[in-house]
Write a structure and sequence with these properties.
Layout lengths: L1 E5 L17 H11 L7 E5 L5 H4 L5 H10 L6 E4 L2 E3 L3 H20 L5 E4 L21 H11 L6 E5 L6 H7 L5 E8 L15 E6 L5 H19 L3 E6 L16 H18 L4 E5 L5 H16 L1
Parallel strand pairs: 1-2, 1-5, 5-10, 6-7, 6-9, 7-8, 9-10
Antiparallel strand pairs: 3-4
Helix pairs in contact: 1-9, 4-5, 7-8, 8-9
Bound molecules: zinc ion.
Length: 305
């Protein structure tokens, strides 16, 4: 079984008409899995709130308090030109981070083989003390820190194939050698980081605009797979953004659903060899609704196969 974790409040976080990071994103993914043949292999869960204690493993305490304090009771406020809070945003962000806590616990207890968190707001741009790029709390980092601190795992890999560099996750774990961060991203492109980090546990994979399936697969095979085998992770997380898809309106890479299935299978082989198959995935970007639903389904199916 695979855990599919979400919460209705994640649909109520809304950054305004026409914003790409829209509630329909998680709705189309849920519909796609419910209409697929893998439905019988999924267990649906409602995400709990992450606690302050769980958040401050990866964020500054003052930053967490600030987000609680500025959350509006009505109306909408801006944290950066792309990142807005409405009255539901704080609860959605707490549930999104809490989904990762639940996912880690379910996988560690072997109640499920793997988990997918169908949540928003996304997280990988959120730094220790900064919200940006549609992100408030770094969901994947909250999950990784829980696996390290609560479950005492010693080596965890993060595969971030979102088209944007996972600057927040890098900011949080760059000095923590228990974590190997593999982030692929279009370069040069928002947030214009990721190519000058010298820490050995940061394996950035910048890709030029126009990158297609073959180049992506060749680079992952050359740069990431040997490093992951060498690292021997005890658990593997995906920051699963699907905005490197050829149909995505925000970026200029040319990946297809099959590429998401491919990388998931490759990573699953490594998880089975070293990590008792333990995988936790969480949604990051992906803004063409049709491509997003198909790509997420391909990724989830590949985690199950
Ligand atoms: Zn993205």
């Amino acid at each position: 079984m695979l855990a599919f974790i979400s919460h209705p409040v994640c649909l109520l976080h809304d950054m305004g008409e026409g914003h790409s990071e829209q509630p329909a994103r998680i709705k189309v993914i849920e519909e796609a899995v419910k209409n697929s043949r893998i439905i019988s292999e999924l267990e649906f869960y409602e995400a709990p709130f992450a606690t302050r204690k769980e958040l401050i493993r990866v964020h500054d305490k003052n930053y967490v308090e600030e987000i609680f304090q500025i959350a509006p009771e009505k109306g909408i406020i801006s944290l950066d030109p792309d990142t807005w809070m409405n009255p539901y945003t704080l609860n959605a962000a707490l549930r999104a981070a809490g989904a990762l806590i639940m996912a880690v616990d379910l996988v560690m207890k072997k109640e499920v083989r793997a988990a997918f968190c169908n949540v928003r707001p996304p997280g990988h741009h959120a730094e220790k003390n900064r919200a940006m790029g549609f992100c408030f709390f770094n969901n994947v980092a909250v999950g990784v820190a829980h696996a390290l601190e609560h479950h005492h795992l010693k080596r965890i890999a993060i595969i971030d194939f979102d088209v944007h560099h996972g600057n927040g996750t890098e900011n949080i774990f760059q000095e923590d050698e228990r974590v190997l961060l593999c982030s692929s991203f279009q370069h040069p492109f928002y947030p214009y980081s990721g190519t000058d980090n010298k820490h050995p546990n940061i394996l950035s994979l910048p890709l030029p605009a126009g990158t297609n399936s073959k180049l992506f697969r060749d680079k992952v095979t050359e740069k990431w797979l040997p490093a992951l085998k060498n690292f021997k992770p005890e658990m593997i997380f995906f920051s699963a953004g699907f905005d490197a898809h050829a149909s995505d309106p925000l970026a200029n890479l040319f990946l297809l659903e099959e590429d998401y299935a491919w990388i998931t299978r490759e990573i699953k082989n490594i998880a089975e060899e070293f990590a008792e198959g333990r995988m936790v995935s969480t949604l990051e970007g992906g803004y063409n609704l049709d491509a997003l639903a198909k790509s997420a389904l391909a990724h989830i199916e590949a985690m199950l196969k």
